[in-house]
Write the C-alpha cells for this entry.
Amino acid sequence: MQFSSTLPGTPSAAADDAARHGRLSVAELLDHLNHALVVLDEQGFVVGHNDAAHRLLELPQTVLAEGALIDDVVRWQIRRGDLRGDADAIVQRVWHHLRTTQTEAHPHVYTYTTASGRTLQGSTIALPGGGWVRVYTDISKHAQALAALRESEARFRSLTELSADWYWEWDAECRYTRLEGRTVEEHDLARHFLGKRPWDVFSPNRPQPRDWAPLQDLIAQRRVFRGWEIQRILPDGQSVWFSLSGMPIMDEHGHCTGYRGVGRNITPRKEAEATVQRLAFYDSLTGLYNRRAFQDQLRKAQAAADRSGQWGALYFIDLDNFKDVNDAYGHKLGDALLRDCAKRLQTILRDEDSVGRLWGDEFVVLLENLGDSQSGALWNAQMIAEKIRAELERPSIHDGQEVQVTPSIGITLFQGSHEAVEEILQRADLAMYQSKAAGRNAIRFFDPDMQAKVMERATLQHELRHGLREQEFALHGQVIVNGGGRIQGLEALIRWRHPKRGMVSPAAFIPLAEQSGLIVPMGQWILEQACRTLARWSSDPERSHWTLAVNLSARQLRQPDLVDTVLRVIDASGCDPKKLKLELTESQLLHDVEDTIKKMEALSARGIRFALDDFGTGYSSLAYLKRLPLSQLKIDRTFVRDLLDDPNDAAIAQTILQLADSLGLDVVAEGVETAAQFEALYAMGCRLFQGYHFGRPAPLDPADPASVH
C-alpha cells in the first residue's frame, strides 16, 4: 500500500496493530480490495493509492506517482481515450465535483467506460481536514447485464409493437396493472382496463358472473390458462375478440403475486368462423335458419317438450303464385320480396320462436310452449297463424313496384320426441297442400279432427263477437238465501241465447271469451246490467236490501283502469255500491297479489264488497287472505256435493266456516241441492246458501237496451 504517513486520515501504527489481530494490516486489507482508491490532498495532488488503482484504472506507476496532479492524471486518461471530450472542460468538471463534494452530504457518483471496455463507477469522498478519496468500482458485468436487459426490453417492445399479440399483467386481485402492445395502443385498452379485473368489464359472450367461473377456478388453483376467449364492445361500438393466455407470478417464497401473459386479437378468426357458421346453418338470402339448422332447432324443441309437457307447433308456409312474381318482375324483385317476408315473420314472432327458409318461397316456423292441453295449443296456434297470414298478405313496395302475395299455411302440433323430425315436417307440408287445395290464402291443420275443432272454435268466436254486438246475451240470477229461506241477494250469471244453437252453456263460451279477450267487454256489459238492476231494486221495498254478486274475470282484474271503470259504471247507474258484490277466485289472486290488493282496497273504500269464490280449491296464502278486504267466502260446490258421504269434505267445510268466523267473514255454501245438505251445513254454523234446492238461475228484470263491442 502506497500511502504517505502524513496523509490526513492515515491510520496510526497503534490502529494498524489493532486491525491486524494476527492477520493483515489495514494497508494490506486496502490492497486486497476490488475497489481502486486514490487519495488527493487539498491542492489535488495524488498522495496515496492502493494496488487496485493500477489494475482497475489501467494506469502506469509513473502516472500515479506521489505528487502527480489530478489534472495530469485526467489528461493522460483523455489522451488514451478513457475519457472523451474537451480536456479543459473535463478538468474543470473534475474540480467542480471535488469542490461540491466538500459541501454535500452524499458523495458524487459517476460512470464511464475506458478505452479497453471496462466500465467503472467512481465516487468522491471529502476527507476531514482537507483532501479527497476517489473510489472506483468495476461494474462491467453489471453494465453488461443492464445493456442486455435494455436490449431485451427493446426486443420485447419491438415484438409487441409489430405483433397482434400484446402483453398484460395482473396483481394478486387479478386487476390489470400493465398493458403493452400495438393492439393496446390501437384500441386504447389501457384506459378501459387498467385497475379492473377482466370480469369487471361487460363481455357479450360472457354476460353472467357464472360464465367466468372456469377461469376463476384455474386462477384460484394457480394454474396456467390458455386461449380464454373474450368479446369486447369498444366505446366506438366496434366488436373485438381477444384470446388471453397467462401464468402465475411467484415470489421467492412461492407466493403468487399476480398473473402475466399475452393477449391476441382474434377478431378476424371469429369473423371467419361466423361466416362459416352462417353458410352452414343460415340461408344466405334471408339470414333465416336453413333446413339443416331448422331441423336441429326442432329436435331441441322436442327435447324441451319432453321435459315440460308443453305442446309445440310447426308451420309450413308457401307464398301463393310467387312464380308469377318472378316471371313478371324478375328474380331481383322476387329476392327482395323473400327478404321482406323473412323480416315480417321475425318481427311478429317472439325471440324464442324459430323461423327458417327451406328453399324457394317456402318458410317454416317453429313455436314452443303453446300450452299443456291440446285444445289450448290448437287455439293458440290458430291465432298466431292468423297474425302471420295478415302480416304476409300486406302489399310491399320494391323499386317503386307494389307487390302482394298471400300465404298458404299448414300446421301440425307435436309434443315430445317420439316422432321423427322429417315426419313432423312432412305432416306440416301435407297440411299446407290442404291449404292450397282449399283455394290458397288459407290455414289448415294436418289432422282432420283437429282442423274441425279449430274451425269450430273460430266460428264460435266469430259468433260470440256478433252475439255481443247484437244483444243476444241476457243476465240471469240465482238466489242466495239465509237459514230461514229469505232471499238476501243473487249472483248474476250470463246466458247466451244463440239464434241457431239455442241456449249455449257458459262452459262453452266463457273460456273462449277469456282466451280471445272478449271477456273484458262482456264483463263490462254484465257490470252495467247488474248496476242498473240494483238501481231499479232500490225503489222496490221487497228487493231494496238485496245484494247482487258479479264475477270478475282474470283479464278484468288485470286491467289497469279496473277501479275507474267500476266506479264510473256505478256513478252512471246511480246504484248503491254497498249492494254490489264482486266475486274473485283463489287462482286470480296468484297473479300480482299486491296490485290486486291495491285495487280491492280502492273499491272497498266506496263500499263495494268482495267475495272469494270456490274457496278451498286453490292455493291462496292465509298471509294474503287476511290482508284482502273480503266480506265473504263461498264454499265450493265440490265439497258440498259429497258432504254427507265423505268425512273429508265435511271436515273441509267445517274448517272453512271456522276460519271465516275467526276472520269475521260471512260464508255462502254453493251447490246446495238437497234438504239434507242444507241441514248439515246449518248445523255446522253456515247461514247463507245457494243452489238448486232454493232455486235455479232465472232471468233478472228486463235490462235497458245495451250492446257491447
Summary: The two ends are 122 Å apart (CA to CA). The first helix runs from residue 13 to 20. Residues 28 and 77 are 27 Å apart (CA to CA). The longest strand covers residues 239-250.
